[in-house]
Write a structure and sequence with these properties.
By secondary structure, the chain is of the alpha+beta class. The chain is built from two helices and two strands, in the order ββαα. A two-stranded antiparallel ribbon has the order 1-2. A hairpin with a 2-residue loop joins β1 and β2. The longest helix is centred in the middle third of the chain and has 17 residues.
Length: about 80
């Protein structure tokens, strides 16, 4: 799963190697997500990619994860 957040007890699937990582409550566009620091970094890199290549690519991310929310929120703000 490409969601960059914790859903339930884990990421998209069990990742026991990350179970001891600190969970950070993160609010983006008024919605709260539970993330590990590396997930927040991944989301920031995603936003950087959109800024750099946004006119060259077309993306669709299904679901309710952080990256999908960032994409939807950004699209709403640009309208």
């Amino acid at each position: 799963g490409v969601d960059s957040c914790i859903t339930g007890e884990h990421h998209a699937y069990a990742q026991p190697e990350n179970d001891s990582d600190i969970v950070i409550d993160t609010i983006v566009g008024g919605k709260s997500f539970r993330c590990h620091a590396w997930m927040i970094s991944q989301a920031q890199e995603f936003m950087d990619l959109i800024k750099f290549m946004g006119e060259e690519i077309e993306l669709s991310i299904p679901g309710e994860g952080l990256l999908a929310h960032i994409l939807r929120t950004g699209a709403e703000l640009s309208e």
